Amino acid sequence: MRHDGALGHVDRQTGAVDPAWFRSFYEEALPAVYGYFFRRCGGRREVAADLTQETFVSAYQSLRRGVVVRSPLPWVVTIARRRLVDFLRRRETDRYDLASEQVEVMVGPGWTSDAEVRLVDALDRLEDDHRLVLVLRYVDDLPVKEVAELLGRSVRATESLLVRARAALSQTYEALSMRRGE
Amino acid sequence: MGETELVEALHSLDRPVDPSGEERERIWQAVSVEVAQDGSEVDADAVYLSHRAVGGTTIGKGVWRMAAVAVVVLVVGLGAVWLGGPDGRRVGGGAATDQTVSGAVELPDGHPAVELLARGADDVTTFSELARQKGLAFQCVSGGMAQVCLVYADGLVAVVPFAAGPGFTVTVGGSAVAEEVAVPLDEGALAVPGPGGRFTAVIRDATGDQVASTRGGLSEPQPPQGGDEVREPLISDAEGEASYAVGVTDTGVLCAQAGGANESLQSCGGKTLSAVAFQAGEHVVLAGYIPAPVGTLTAVLDDGQRFPLELTLVPGQDMFAFGLIACHHRVRRNRSTG
Questions:
Q1: Of the candidates B218, B201, B213, B182, which has an alpha carbon nearest to the alpha carbon of residue B42?
Q2: Is residue B331 less than 8 Å (CB to CB) from chain A?
Q3: CB B334: neighbour CB atoms within 10 A?
Q4: Which candidate in B1, B13, B47, B175 is best for mutational testing of the A interface (most A CBs within 10 A)?
Q5: What ipTM was estimated for this complex?
C-alpha cells in the first residue's frame, strides 16, 4: 500500500484511526523518519529510535485531532524536523549518556564511506545550534528564511550563524582527520 | 576536505535508513501503545527524563483520570499504606501474586526513594515534585491503571508503584540494570540492581498485555552540559534564609539557582531563548534569557497569574538579556533585573 494521497483512514465521527492502516503507513515511512534522525544525531541508533517513536506518536495524535493530510510522507518528515529542532534546542541531548554510546565508526549499514562517518561524527561534536543550522540548511536543504523561522532568529543572524557553523565543522573535521593520521 | 566539499557532503546525508528488524519492532511496540489505546490514556510525549540537577518528569494527560483510580487503589491498600515504616524497607503492599520477582531486592533504608515515601510522597505528583527538588535521577511511567516511578541511586533502580491493578507488572531492562527483571506492582516498592543508564520499562496488565512503555536514561544528576561551570552569578538576591541567582555558563546555558539553609536548587534552560521556573520552598523562581539586547518574557503560573520578567542586558555582552524574579506565595516579592 502506498500512502501518497490524502489520509482516508480516519473515522470522521469518532476520530479513530484505522490501526492496520497506520501500521502500514509506519512500515512505509519508517526508513525515511528513522533515516532522518540517524545521521542528524551522530549515528546513534538509540536516539534515532526514540525520536522516531515520538514522531509517529505525534503523527498519530495529529490524525486523531482531525488534521487533514494530503502528502503523508513529507508531512511526517516535517513532524520529524520539528522534533529534531525541539530536541536540539531544548538540550534534550542531556537525556542521553552520549559519552557511553559509541557511534558506529566502521562503514556498514547506513554508511557509504569512512569520510561520511567522520563527517557525521564532526557534525555531532558541534555545539547544538551549529549542528542544527547546518542540518536544516544543508542536509534538509531549507532556504535560509525558513531556517531562520525555525530557529527564531533573523535571516541576518542565521546567515552569520551559518558562517560560524561551517567554520566550526571544517575545523572539527580536520581535527578528526588528523587524529586518524590522514 | 574543504568547507565547500563538506557542505556538498552534507547534502548527501539525507537518505533513508532501514532500521534492523529488532529496532523496527521495538519502535512499533512503543508506538502501538498509543495506537492500541487510541490516545485515551498513554501519552508517550508526556514521559520524559529527569536530567541535570533538577531533572523532572511529567505524567501524561491521563494522569488526572488515573488519579481517581490511584485513590481507590490506595484506599483498598490501606493495610499497607505506603509510609516506609521504621525500617524503611518494604514500602507498599497488597496481595501477593504468583509472579516471580526475579533479581529484585528490597529497598535499603537509605535509598532516596524510601526517604521520599517516608516524607509523604504517596502519589506520583508529590513524588515527582520532591524527587525533582532533590535532584534525583527519576522517571515515571503511566498507562492503563498503572503508575510507577523509577529512581536510580547507589547502584539500585527503585521501582515504586503508585497505582496498579491486580497482577500488573513492570519489566525493567536495558543497560541500567544488571538483568531484565519483571517486578509485580502490587508487591510494593522493590529495587533492581544495576549501574544506572539506559533503560526500558514496559507495564503489562494481568493478562500480559502491554499497557505502557518508555525508554530513557537514569543517571546521576549531571552539571550543565559541556562540563562547564556556572560562571560568577550575574545577579543574586537574598531575603531571609533564601537566596537566588541567575547565571550563564560559558556555552551560553542559562541556570537559575535558589539556595537556602536546607537545600540548594538549580535549573538550567537552553542556549538561546530560554526560561526556567521552579518551586523553591515557599517561592516560585522564574528566570529568562533571550538573544536580544532587551525584552520581556511573561511567566504564566498554573493559576493564571502572569509575571512579566523585564530582561536587561547581560553584563559584558551586547546581544543577550536576562531577568530573575522570585514570587513568595505567588505574590511578587523580590525582583531583580540587573
A1: B213
A2: no
A3: 17
A4: B13
A5: 0.80
